[in-house]
Amino acid sequence: MKKSSHKNQRINGEVQRELSRIISREIKDPRINPMTSVTDVIVTPDLKFCKAFISVLGDEDSAKETFAGLQSAAGYIRRELARSINLRNTPELIFVMDNSIEYGIEMSKKIDEVVGNDSEALEDETVEGDSLDNETDEADLNGDEDE
Length: 147
Prior knowledge:
The chain is an alpha+beta fold.
């Protein structure tokens, strides 16, 4: 089976949905942050291993505690995954912390800040340009044209 085959993509999607459901609804570990999401899942073609990318909304300590809670519940999660998905092999779970959402939010804030600064500078130039144009227009109205 090719790594990017349609069958492998379907398995990745199904495992991701089930992992999200198990983590959010069935695990009762208080260390796991309720704002934990499974951003991506990669199952090897032989179905032996599953790399699950986990994102935690919160501070760094919360992310570390969530990661520790997931590591300790890996056996339970794997058993529930085997019950809910009928696969030849139930993959061994490898959890990887994914900071891409936090990185995206940070970049979005920086972009908004730069765009805000540019628009303020543009408004300042426009206001200054308008005042010069208004003075010229008033001079034209008074007949004070330079010929």
